Amino acid sequence: MATAITVEGLSKRYRIGELQSAYGTLRDSLAAAGHRLVRRDHERHYQEIWALRDVSFELADGDVLGVIGRNGAGKSTLLKVLTRITTPTEGRAEIRGRVGSLLEVGTGFHPELTGRENVYLNGSVLGMKRREIDRKYPDIVEFAEIETFMDTPVKRYSSGMYVRLAFAVAAHLEPEILLVDEVLSVGDAGVRRDRDVHGHARQAVLERDVRAARVRRRRPPRARDPARR
Amino acid sequence: MPVIRRSWPARSPPPGGPVASIGAVTQTAESPPAPGAEAAHDEQISRGLAARVTVIRPAPRWPHLDVRELWHYRELLGRLAWRDVAVRYKQTSIGVAWAILQPFLMMVVFTIVFGKFASFPSKGVPYPIFSYSALLPWIYFASAVSLSSASLVSNRPLVTKIYFPRVLLPLAGVTVPIVDFLLALVVLFGMMVWFDVWPSAGIVLAPVFLLMALVTALGVGLFLSAINVRYRDVPYVIPFLMQVWLYFSGVVYALEDLAEWQQWVLALNPMTAVINGFQWGVLGTEPPGLGKTMVSAAAMAAMLIVGLSYFRRSEPGFADTI
Questions:
Q1: pLDDT band at residue B166 using 50, 70 and 90 as cut-offs
Q2: CA–CA distance, B304 with A41 (Å, rounded to integer)
Q3: Considering CB atoms only, which of B8, B41, B161 is closest to A104?
Q4: Cβ distance A123 to A85 under 8 Å?
Q5: Do A85 and B162 lie within an 8 Å CB cutoff?
Q6: Which pLDDT value is given to residue A76?
Q7: What is the pTM of this model?
Q8: Of B11, B164, B232, which has the smallest distance from its Cβ to A70's Cβ?
Q9: Which 8-state DSSP code applies to residue B31?
Q10: Which of A155, B67, B89, B111 is the most buried (most CB within 10 A)?
Q11: Domain ranges for chain B
Q12: CA nearest B198: which of B108, B285, B104, B288?
């Protein structure tokens, strides 16, 4: 079977000091620059941290990879690099196939927009085409079980309804490669209060997973921790 | 949104370093029963996939703009612009009337202050229609600049959670106020009938001049939005910048009455060409000189290039610093 994902020596460095000053004002930066000029000290005022260091792996079609590790181990960073949200400091990765990424459910949901409008917005953000959303719309509504509220602004939803709708859109994304970050657990938590939906959502997603995994390739690291090997 | 976290079995931190390697699980799904049809289908998919290879590498020093990728994301651009239009007047009592009221009231104030008290020159047309026809492109420009400058920070949840060409955000920002412009245009037509002022043949070029305003706003917006990711001073700078810029754009007085050399200097501001050109079209006033328009076009191109280069250079760090 062909390889779906190749990752070679991927590393990502963050500068902690820099991250802190990132919220500073222009004046702070100018002042800092001035200090450096006057004192002529070129010592770095930040601390470096390697969130990822030399990560390499290869995944074939149909492989499923879960990454586990404790807080701060770099799972999310790995995911952010693979989804191209941020760039690596070193190394390279190659992904073959249409990538769908779910770093959270309901990315881009706008509180003022109605449920229907948000389905279209969120679907586009996740990379679905308009026609695709049109086609899946009835399924998404059925899945979320909030037909009567589709024309209500999302800000008036209960948190359970909100998560169900967000989750319903995510569950209808059909990529060849799926990158997921703790999304399923969020879905769980959100819909837990409603046992029926909970079971339904879980089942539907798993079914989809199996199909995706068989026909295509898929990689859901249910990112639970460290990316360092 | 409630964040209920599932508790996981506590692990004792492994010795040595804050970064722990606990393990990764690879599991291969059973391969499908592959009868002819399905195998062919599989193969077809593989071939289709070969074309879609995403290569992830450290950010290049001088990234170029991937136009093909932008085209691929055109639907998302439309969706983002649509969202901003849809949300713009939600929960306001008079809604889209604001799009007309804002330029109209400014026109009234300008007419009283600059037209009556100061008697500024107005190209031989009644001052109200002179200032209203200048205010339309100006207000479009000012909102385009402020919307696109804020676009990255106001869409922070998107920037940190999903990939798409970030250029789409400032681009959507300069698209959105077009709607307000078109609404306010209706009042302009009414005023033209009222004051008996008629367009010239130059009206066919009016869209070109408006496009100039869009590109200029995009250049400024790209630059300021990228700066805004790092320094949140930008929202304080913009109102001031726009106020000063207004007085150098020929909105309140006719530029023709300035000395020739002053007009050439002001041509460096693309908005002078936009406003002169637009007024030439709709009011039939003097056409803007070709030479000065070229200077403006060159300045516009320079702003776009500088803005886009700065934006593309800072783009890799957006998600980390925003």
A1: very high
A2: 36
A3: B161
A4: no
A5: yes
A6: 83
A7: 0.79
A8: B11
A9: P
A10: B111
A11: 62-321
A12: B285
